[in-house]
Design brief:
By secondary structure, this protein is of the alpha/beta class. The chain contains 23 helices and 27 strands. It has 4 domains: 156 residues, Rossmann fold; 224 residues, Rossmann fold; 186 residues, 3-Layer(aba) Sandwich (Rossmann fold), CATH 3.40.50; 74 residues, Alpha-Beta Complex (Hypothetical Protein Ta0175, Chain: A, domain 2), CATH 3.90.1070.10. The chain has a 9-stranded mixed β-sheet, with helices on both faces.
Length: 700
């Protein structure tokens, strides 16, 4: 609920949020007192403790942590209005496994992660997973079950049999509809009463034969909304009883006092129909309990005067907004706001043929009895163990302050590149090749002005002027932009459009790749891209000499992602027999010639240098995005054909999963490293002759 006005729910109160945080901290302190983090698993339950995982993860980086939400997760349109939305999402993402009752609830959570944190999910061998700073956070969809043994033991109590006889005598000759709900504004009790009123109005023959027994559990709070819901319920029930009742007959009976478990079980066993009409609810196990009680026990059959071999029956009317609804395929699902539809559903339930009632009951009972609370707990814990099995195979670092804390989990061989170590290795070598990315590496990704700063130009020129150095910018951008930006660097090499065009220095001519020269497919896909651009507000097309790129960064996140997947499939079908490949990137879909990649640029440059009789003894590549992974792969692959004395350094920008073995934190770290190398090049002790390749990364 959005508190549009003070009477419509409480507005966000920062002091109450601080109290919530404090309560979670108290739980965290207690867990830390007793936990053995290497052996123990922690399973956190429900919305009361949604930031507890952050406190635990901050204390133990490798804590084995699961969370299960027993209430609905709101849609992103509602959730995004919460001032502390990021803190709660990040709290849940500090878990290893997050459980939801239904896919709807999980879908809302995933949509919030996508829209607010830019995280995308994928299915990994049947399991939904979110990649969060190197950790995979798994999502599990599993409705909770009931404790069969406990319920069946209550059915066999003598007091239950006594209560059943009492109910049978009280309602002899009448059809009993049962409702059991908490008193709050979400349970739809008044809507249920209106449906019964409509049913009696349209079916006068049911007068005197139909009774709704509504058991009201004690309210969990006493706010104005609860009092209003209670007042409306009593007024509606009184109106119905006055209009359709008679001496000795009330069509609606409200039981508004604490009711023992055995009494509820007795009502379940006798009722012909059970209705759950909530407008919003978590799981709601009332239908499950009703099904088990209608299955009865031999003792209960004897008490009720029913033959042991007689078929068991039950009918359910369930709101489609209740968590148990998807698992009860034999129930009559209704929209609780549609009074006419609920009335018709009740009439259908009461007039349904006995064989169909039996068939639906058997189907439900098989599900409820096999998917009990033991099955639910065992299944969740098995998945939690699987989600945590790689905890000690990776190195972990903690980042972020307060509730923004998260753990970055990476391969043990992945470590930060030491500037001092690199400069020392640089000085010891005599023939060096260095590959650098541009956007997000030399220039910040968020920079609006993509022209290199004077500092960048100065460092690149210093590296290029060393006789032993060859510097290349390898980029997905067009060659015109690269030429303009890097015009002050006379000796720098440029590989544009992922290496489709290559130039060794400013005086050299552009060389086009010999892999493919047929670009007729561009004319084929142009209309397709224009069609998707017109249909997706915020998207655009980037036209390159050798490639076409569809951008959806400024489109609605969900719409852009859906359209990108559809466009991928569309283009793959259209280009099935063409020499082009379709690639999905961060907010882009790119179509480029087959056999063109940054990795091939690396191989081409290195082979040219080797064939010239000057085998390199120092190879370095720095980049920040997916296309640079091809460079890392080619560089590491070339190490197998090089002598053991060759220093090979593949480095990504930012701590994230990568084929590179090293990382630097950001562009400022990259510039510190390059400045150190440039200073070493200017040293008179240095021997001449080194080669450096710099990669200029495109938005693609």
């Amino acid at each position: 609920m959005l508190p549009m006005c003070p009477d419509h729910g409480d507005r966000f109160d920062r002091s109450l949020w601080q109290a919530y945080v404090s309560a979670n901290k108290i739980f965290a302190d207690k867990v830390m007192e007793v936990i053995n983090p290497e052996d123990d698993y922690v399973w956190v339950h429900d919305y009361h403790l949604m930031i507890l995982p952050t406190f635990l993860r901050k204390r133990f980086y490798r804590v084995k942590l699961g969370f299960f939400l027993h209430s609905p997760f709101p849609s992103s349109e509602i959730y995004r209005t919460l001032p502390v939305r990021d803190e709660i999402l990040k709290g849940l993402l500090n878990c290893d496994l997050i459980g939801f009752h239904t896919f709807d609830y999980a879908r809302h959570f995933l949509s919030c992660c996508s829209r607010m944190l830019g995280l995308n999910y994928e299915s990994k061998r049947g399991h939904i997973g979110l990649d969060y700073f190197g950790r995979t956070v798994y999502i599990k969809i599993l409705p909770v079950g009931i404790h069969m043994g406990r319920l069946e033991s209550v059915l066999n109590l003598p007091c239950t049999s006594t209560k059943i006889k009492e109910i049978q005598d009280q309602f002899r000759g009448k059809k009993l509809i049962l409702g059991i709900d908490d008193m709050d504004i979400f349970k739809g009790i008044s809507l249920k009463l209106l449906a019964v009123e409509q049913l009696l109005h349209l079916n006068p023959d049911l007068l005197g034969k139909l009774v709704l027994v509504q058991i009201i559990n004690p309210a969990r709070s006493s706010g104005k909304d609860v009092q209003e819901a209670k007042r409306e319920t009593y007024l509606t029930a009184r109106r119905i009883n006055v209009a359709y009742g008679s001496p000795g007959y009330e069509p609606v009976i409200l039981i508004d006092h604490p009711v023992a478990r055995y009494e509820k079980s007795a009502y379940y066993a006798v009722a012909e129909c059970c209705i759950v009409n909530a407008v919003r609810d978590g799981m709601n196990l009332v239908p499950y309990k009703y099904i088990v009680c209608r299955q009865r026990t031999p003792l209960l059959d004897k008490t009720m005067g029913i033959a042991t071999d007689s078929p068991h029956t039950s009918t359910l009317v369930v709101s489609e907004f209740v968590g148990c609804s998807p698992s009860l395929s034999g129930a009559i699902r209704v929209n609780p706001w549609d009074i006419d539809a609920v009335s018709e559903a009740l009439n259908l339930a009461l007039t349904m043929p006995e064989p169909e009632k039996h068939m639906r009951h058997e189907k439900h009972y098989r599900y409820v009895s096999s998917h009990n609370v033991t099955y639910w707990a065992r299944s969740f814990l098995q998945d939690l163990e699987r989600a945590c099995k790689d905890h000690y195979n990776k190195r972990c670092w903690g980042f972020g302050l307060g509730l923004n804390f998260r753990v970055v989990s990476l391969s043990p061989s992945f470590r930060k590149l030491s500037i001092e170590y690199m400069v020392a290795a640089y000085k010891r070598t005599s023939r060096r090749v260095i590959f650098l990315d541009y956007d997000g590496t030399v220039v910040p990704q968020t920079s609006i002005n993509k022209s290199p700063s004077p500092e960048v130009i100065s460092v690149l020129n210093a590296l290029c002027c060393d006789p032993k150095n060859t510097v290349f910018i390898v980029s997905g951008r067009g060659r015109n932009s690269l030429c303009e930006w890097l015009s002050p660097c006379d000796k720098i090499g440029i590989a544009a459009e992922h290496g489709y065009f290559l130039r060794w220095d400013k005086t050299s001519d552009w060389e086009a790749t010999t892999v493919v020269a047929d670009l007729e497919w561009k004319e084929i896909i142009n209309p397709v891209l224009r069609s998707y651009t017109e249909a997706t507000d915020g998207s655009s097309i980037e036209i390159k000499e050798s490639a076409l790129v569809w951008h959806h960064q400024d489109a609605d996140p969900d719409l852009g992602a859906w359209q990108a997947m559809e466009l991928m499939e569309h283009l793959e079908n259209v280009l099935a027999n063409e020499p082009a490949v379709v690639k999905r990137g961060q907010h882009i879909v790119e179509v480029k010639p087959q056999g063109v990649s940054k990795g091939l640029v690396v191989e081409r440059v290195i082979s040219t240098i080797v064939n010239g009789g000057m085998a390199p003894d120092f190879l370095m590549c720095i980049g920040d995005d997916r296309s640079d992974e091809d460079m890392f792969e080619s560089l590491l692959k070339s190490s197998s054909s090089q002598s053991a004395s060759v220093g090979i350094f593949a480095c990504t920008v930012g701590q994230k999963p990568s084929k590179a073995r090293y990382y630097l934190d950001d562009t400022s770290d990259v510039m510190k490293l390059l400045s150190g190398l440039a200073t070493a090049s200017a040293s008179p002790k240095l021997r001449p002759n080194m080669q450096i390749q710099v990669s200029f990364e495109s938005t693609a």
